[in-house]
């Protein structure tokens, strides 16, 4: 029985962000050029690792602000021999606005972003008015944004933001994608708390 070849131990999947102004060419982070996806806030990598394992024909970049979490995903990715996964440590909003090239992404995944539940903190939410134009700039034509949250009020805001945004139309989240749960989702699911899903594709308009 053959074993999956692991990556060299000194070859970290974490790509260092060394400049606050120079864009990162995400496609060049991978040995093979293929469809490219971005996950914002990967947590412990539960979704990311499942997705990369089951979709070797796609490259995925996972973003996380906390270095400890990212280091754990890095170790798990190495053990799994994943060559189609790369990791970034940065703030999501800044990365989207300043550090990525336009028209390179096939999908953006945003799962269980911080809901900032207090009304005075709603301005800090990632999925707000400025997000759709940023996503539209980064996505290829017919590229898709996938959203998940357990917070009903935040979910309603997500729907309002994207339903009012130019250049996006609602679409369905594939059942195969829903089946890949994040760490938060596994906890909520065990407690009987439902997950709200939404998806929007870029129309080109």
Structural description of this entry:
With 205 residues, the chain is of the alpha/beta class. It has one domain: Rossmann fold (3-Layer(aba) Sandwich). Helix content is 30%, strand content 21%. It has 7 helices and 7 strands; from the N terminus they run βαβαβαβαβαβααβ. It has helices spanning 46-54, 67-79, 92-99, 131-138, 152-163, 175-178, 183-190; strands spanning 36-40, 59-63, 85-88, 105-111, 139-149, 168-171, 196-202. It has a 7-stranded mixed beta sheet, with helices on both faces. The longest helix is centred in the middle third of the chain and has 13 residues, at 67-79. The model is unreliable at 1-7 (pLDDT under 50).
Which key phrases capture this entry?
7 strands; disordered N terminus; globular; Rossmann fold; alpha/beta; 7-stranded mixed β-sheet
- Rg (C-alpha, Å): 17 Å
Overall CATH architecture: 3-Layer(aba) Sandwich
Structural class: alpha/beta
CATH topology: Rossmann fold
Oligomer type: single chain
What pattern of helices and strands is seen along the backbone?
EHEHEHEHEHEHHE
**How many strand elements?**
7
